[in-house]
Design brief:
By secondary structure, the chain is an alpha/beta fold. It has two domains: 117 residues, Ribosomal protein L1/L10, rRNA-binding domain (Ribulose 1,5 Bisphosphate Carboxylase/Oxygenase); 84 residues, Ribosomal protein L1/L10, domain II (Rossmann fold), CATH 3.40.50.790. Helix content is 31%, strand content 21%. It contains eight helices and nine strands. The protein has a four-stranded antiparallel beta sheet with strand order 7-1-8-9, with helices on one face. Strands 4-3-5 form a three-stranded parallel beta sheet, with helices on both faces. The chain has a two-stranded antiparallel sheet with strand order 2-6. Helix 3 links the parallel strand 3 and strand 4. Helix 2 packs across helix 8.
Length: 229
C-alpha cells in the first residue's frame, strides 16, 4: 500500500509527453521527499531482438560527475601485490584466503577486481559470482595487473551498463544533491556509450525503444533523447 508521502507525488508522470532531461531534472528532484539523498536513475528499454542476433550489451563507463556512492572494492591478487592494492584504496585484499571466504558466501563488497594470475582460481566460483554480476572480466577492466587504475575507476564513478534478457538497462547517474550540470554530463556520457555499443553491435534501426528517469523513491518521467540511438 502506497505511503502518505508517495500519495502526494504526481500520479500521471509516466503518461506525460517525453521531455528533454534539462526540463525533467527539476521535477524529479522536487519528488525527492525522503530524508536521504536519493539516487537519480535512468531506465532504458532496448531493441535487443534483432533478426539474426540477440543484442547483449555489457560495458563500463566512467561518469565525469561521479555517482555519489561509496563503493566497497575487493581485490584478489598475489601476496606481493597486497600492499599496492591497499595503498590504492582497496577495502578488502587477499589471495586464496579471500577466494575461500567468497566460496563460503562472504561477499561484503560491490566490486571485485582480480589479477590475471589469480583468475584461473577465482573462475571456479563462477556460479557464485556470476549471478550477482561480480565476476571480474578483462573486457570491463576488472581483470588487470594495473590495480591502481582499476581501483580508482571503481571508486570514482564507474558504472556498468548491462541489459537483462528482456532488454532493460538500469543505471544511476547521480544524487539529488548533485548540481543539474553534473547529472546532465553523466547522462550524456551514458548516451555516448550506448551510441558506441550500437555501432559495435551493428544494430539496424533504433537501439533504444524507450527511456525514463526517476529518483529512488519517486515517480518516473519519459525522456526525450538528445540524439537518435
Amino acid at each position: 500500500m502506497p505511503s502518505k508521502r508517495y500519495k502526494k507525488l504526481p500520479d500521471n508522470s509516466s503518461s506525460l509527453p517525453a521531455e528533454a532531461i534539462e526540463k525533467i531534472i527539476p521535477e524529479v528532484k522536487k519528488n525527492c521527499t525522503t530524508k536521504f539523498d536519493e539516487s537519480i536513475d535512468l531506465s532504458f528499454q532496448i531493441n535487443n531482438k534483432q533478426k539474426k542476433i540477440e543484442v547483449n550489451i555489457r560495458t563500463v563507463v566512467n561518469l565525469p560527475g561521479g555517482t555519489g556512492k561509496k563503493v566497497k572494492v575487493a581485490v584478489v591478487c598475489e601476496e606481493p601485490k597486497f600492499s599496492e592494492a591497499k595503498e590504492a584504496g582497496a577495502d578488502i585484499v587477499g589471495g586464496d584466503d579471500l577466494i575461500e571466504k567468497i566460496k563460503n558466501g562472504e561477499m561484503n563488497f560491490e566490486k571485485l577486481i582480480c589479477t590475471p594470475g589469480m583468475m584461473i582460481r577465482l573462475s571456479k566460483l563462477g556460479k557464485i559470482l556470476g549471478p550477482k554480476g561480480l565476476m571480474p572480466n578483462p573486457k570491463l577492466g576488472s581483470v588487470t595487473e594495473n590495480l591502481k587504475t582499476a581501483i580508482s575507476d571503481a571508486k570514482s564513478g564507474q558504472v556498468e551498463i548491462r541489459n537483462d534478457k528482456d532488454g532493460n538497462i538500469g543505471v544511476s547517474i547521480g544524487k539529488k544533491s548533485f548540481k543539474d550540470e553534473q547529472i546532465i554530463k553523466n547522462y550524456n556520457t551514458i548516451l555516448e556509450t550506448l551510441e558506441k555499443e550500437k555501432s559495435n553491435n551493428t544494430i539496424k534501426g533504433d537501439l533504444i525503444k524507450s527511456s525514463f528517469i526517476s529518483s529512488t523513491m519517486g515517480v518516473s518521467y519519459k525522456l526525450k533523447l538528445t540524439k537518435n540511438i
